[in-house]
Design a protein that fits this description.
3 helices; 7 strands; about 150 residues; alpha+beta
Length: about 150
């Protein structure tokens, strides 16, 4: 069972920030073997949707209001610890992120930059592909929208 909290950057404890960055590095840099600049200066603008299990961060997303990342509200850095994926926490954290966009930003139109292999995952949450695929950090991506 996940406990979900949504926090601004300034509300994050030092430990929470460290654990979030560690989880993102474990998955996006090490597991996906992709050297890229994860710390991009955008965490300060976003809200952080954090999934805790037994007081440990195992799932995470960051959300943006329209204009702060894309022209529409957006969700990014969707991540679940590898040993926790079998429990469906990706769906839980992502649904909570969609709800957080509605609650905090009063927006329902959301744009994401999705890794292509996760297209069906995002489609299951009502997103549709727009435009052609592209490479981001040498990983195939697609833009997707939910209205």
């Amino acid at each position: 069972m996940l406990t979900i909290l949504t926090k601004s950057f300034s509300e994050l404890s030092t430990k929470e920030l460290y654990d979030i960055l560690q989880l993102r590095a474990e998955v996006f840099v090490v597991e996906q073997n992709c050297v890229y600049q994860d710390i991009d200066g955008k965490d300060q603008k976003s809200l952080h949707v954090i999934g805790f299990k037994n007081d440990k961060i195992v799932a995470y997303c960051r959300i943006f209001k329209s204009g702060d990342y894309f022209e529409k509200a957006s969700i990014g850095r969707v991540v679940v610890a590898k040993n926790e994926r079998k429990f469906g926490y990706g769906h839980v954290i992502f649904e909570n992120s969609i709800e957080a966009v509605k609650e905090y930003f009063k927006e329902t139109s959301i744009k994401i930059s999705a890794q292509l292999y996760l297209k069906k995952f995002y489609e299951s949450h009502g997103f549709v592909q727009i435009g052609e695929g592209y490479l981001e950090d040498d990983i195939p991506h697609i833009a997707m929208i939910k209205n």
